[in-house]
Amino acid sequence: MSVRLDLDDMQGLIARGYGKLPHAAYLLLQITEADPAREVLRGWAKDLTTADEEPDSAATNLALSSAGIAKLGGSPLLAGLSRQFGEGMVTPHRSRLLGDLGENDPAGWTWGGPGTDVVHVLLLIYSSDPTTLTARCDDLGSAPGLRLVRRLDTAPVTPTESFGFADGISQPWLEGLGPAPSGSDLVRAGEFVLGYPNEYDQLTPRPLLPDGLDVGRNGCYLVIRQLSQDVDGFWAYLDAAATGADGRLDLAQRDLLAAKMMGRWPSGAPLALAPEHDDPALATANDFGYGERDAHGMHCPVGAHVRRANPRDSLEPSPGTAESRRINRRHRLLRRGRAYGEPGTEQGLHFICLGGNLARQYEFVQHTWVNNPDFDGLFGEEDPVIGPRRCDDSRFTVPDTPVRRRVRELPQFVQVRGGGYFFLPGVRALSYLVREQP
Amino acid sequence: MPHQEAVTVSAAIRADRVERVADLLAGMSTQGAARNDVIPFADLDGVHFARLFVLPAASDLDGAEIPATLFYMCDVDAPTQRHLDVLAEQHGRGLDSVFGHCVGYPEGEVTTQLRVRFLGNHLVGSAATYIHTVGRSVDQVRAEHSLREVIEEVVDTPGAVLPTDSATQAVDRIRGAVLEREDFRWAARPPSGPGLAFRLREAAHMLLLIVVGLLLLPILLPLVVVLLVLVRRKERTDVPDTARPSAEHVRATEQHEDFGAQNPFTAVGLVKAGGVRRLTMRGVLFGLDFASRHIYRRDNLAGVRTIHFARWTPIDDGRRLVFVSNYDNSLDSYMDDFIDRLAWGLNAVFSNGAGWPRTRWLVLGGARDESAFKDYLRTHQVPTPVWYSAYDTLTARNVDANMARRQQLPRQLDEHAAADWLSGL
């Protein structure tokens, strides 16, 4: 298994999350006049950070929504891209599929929803220092032919997300990017980048134009969701749950329940390996499974957030086997999001994930794993941390001996505030799309 | 306990009434299949799943026209006749407004007798059926789920199980508390399973087929080889579909999907021309029916545990095949299961259908071509506007887990078995 990736054509976000550039902002732009916008985008396309670079001061990547591609005259491209991308994140069926109902209803979104301005361009700007970032955002956000719909600021990179848990530990490793770090899944490049063989050893459909141009190659889909996290509510709930009849808060119990819900301790140590208490030595441990040692979830509950989002080797028909892992590899997400907000303000995550197949990856994980009330044999449970609450009585079962404990009527801690499907094109494809019209 | 039967009633819709039927079904869909004014399926005992759908007018491979056809399908606890009688007697008006648009439906004063006769005359047999667990009635599924809820309540009661209990002690306490309740005394006995007569008949059927099969082996084996070679020759020139499903078509089908734990799937396709393909398909369906009746009669179909009921129904004198199932999770996850685990089986049946992705030797290739396969399935899918499930929050795994808990409850369990029983809570 070896593949040569066109690293100089792929946008850098596919290869790295730019952790060395702690400051970032995402600009949501609308094309108001196509011609000037095309000229601006032509300029930007030359400056985009590609996967062969390892920037230490600044990086810029750019993605387009289906409306954006249409606006730029790229409709022939759209026919070759996926139906999910073409329809966008907000349709009645997709809202059911993604759990965007109730508190998460797109009608209440601050951007990307039915009542908000259409977004055509997503500009992802990274910098090593905050002042430069602000200047670049101001500069890029006021380009001719484009209007800034919204600027999504992010919090300076820290190892933890807003609830206080280390995040982003388990990432699939793209074939072709060099040797995989220990414990991470090596996944065929085509799972994430169009134009290369995927885990079925097949090419995911992509736009091939009549003149033979492979405009899908080196591109991928990008999902962005603004997830608002009720940090105070989350910890207040846990405090209450760990407070005895005598009014005393049992901190150890509280932290254990929080870890059971997440599936990892705040340091990142997985419950599968550190079932009793946090162990910072295991903070980045990622080489483990559930199927053999923890089939019933005595260490890491079956319903825990990280086990739902990446069940590893625990699923049917043969948990604990290479076959189970092989199937799991078809449902991986390359996560590139960043936290936003600081204590005292709205906090959350600008979730971003990349993939070659929205239906089989992001939508599948969201529907069949994360939000599935009956995930892996459970009864009427939802992701205890990020799930919407659609069951009358959302429960969370913590397996234990002699019998399980369970919490009931779990409140919702994460609310979707916006989102959209984008396409992160290869640089050549973008240049083609915004080329000078004869 | 009764066994389960697949009921199919189909009738051609009068040409001028196709739209009215669509409107009627849409209205039922809006009100919900369980509680609509026309046929509230929740009132019908013994119905696991039911659906009403329309196959639009089409033409066959020779260009002959096939009229739009209305289908009623359900999976019921036997006997089928009782279900049809109840439908005709208690939901006669509803039946009139649904099938009244069809060719041959009695006009004027429609009596129960006439309705029963119409239904009987329009029954269609299936070439193969799959039942997740044979002999498990609707009542049993529901009772066993309420048993689980009571067990869970007992476990939630402070002091009902002590932290120092062994697994055996914990199970004993739970059993004691549950069986103390008047309304759960029944759980002291394991489920009875399908009736003796049914079991004998099934055993005889299996035995007979095995004996006949063995006797005919000297003829069957060469026949299979010849068929395979003939199929292989056709495979090289058969033309796979390349069309992607239109956005409108997908919207029309998926508007009825992903409301609960389960979904309906309904699809139709033309069978390829010629005797070789027809014979192959009939043979494979015969084998499939045998396998699901006698081998996969409990909790899975060749390793797939997400299908509650399925059927393969040839129609129009074998020119078309309808495939229908009731499955867990989304269509995308269902299709992934197919590719990962059942591609060979799907190929064996559906590669005899026009346009299927290219196969080799009947079972290789085909459905393993992810995008071609998924496009084919969506393209051949038809909307299922009216769909009823008697237990729509439960996956097949949930139902199995409930039954396992119930079966073990009356028994004395050793420590290991008791721990296993408790781990399913």
Q: Can you offer a commentary on this structure?
A:
The complex is a heterodimer of chains A (438) and B (425). Chain A is α+β, with helices and mostly antiparallel strands and 438 residues long. Chain A has a domain at 228-418. Chain A is 24% helix and 17% strand. Chain A is built from twelve helices and 13 strands. Chain A has helices spanning 34-47, 66-71, 75-80, 83-87, 92-98, 130-140, 231-241, 251-262, 305-309, 322-328, 359-370, 427-433; strands at residues 23-31, 58-64, 121-127, 146-153, 173-174, 186-187, 220-229, 334-335, 338-340, 347-355, 396-398, 405-407, 414-424. In chain A, α1 packs antiparallel against α12. The longest helix of chain A is centred in the first third of the chain and has 14 residues, at 34-47. The model of chain A has no long low-confidence stretch (mean pLDDT 95). In chain B, α6 crosses α13 (415-423) and α10 (331-350) packs across α11. Chain B is globular and about 75 Å long. Chain B is α+β, with helices and mostly antiparallel strands. In chain B, 47% of the residues lie in helices and 16% in strands. Chain B has helices at 18-31, 80-90, 92-99, 112-121, 138-156, 167-179, 196-237, 247-254, 275-294, 331-350, 370-380, 396-408, 415-423, and strands spanning 4-12, 47-55, 58-59, 65-66, 69-77, 128-131, 262-270, 307-315, 320-328, 359-360, 364-365, 386-389. The longest helix of chain B is centred in the middle third of the chain and has 42 residues, at 196-237. Among the domains of chain B are: 4-131, Dimeric alpha+beta barrel (Alpha-Beta Plaits); 138-190 and 395-423, no CATH class. In chain B, the strands form four sheets. In chain B, strands 1-5-2-12 form a four-stranded antiparallel beta sheet. Chain B has a four-stranded antiparallel beta sheet with strand order 6-8-9-7. The interface between A and B is large, with 37 and 51 residues.
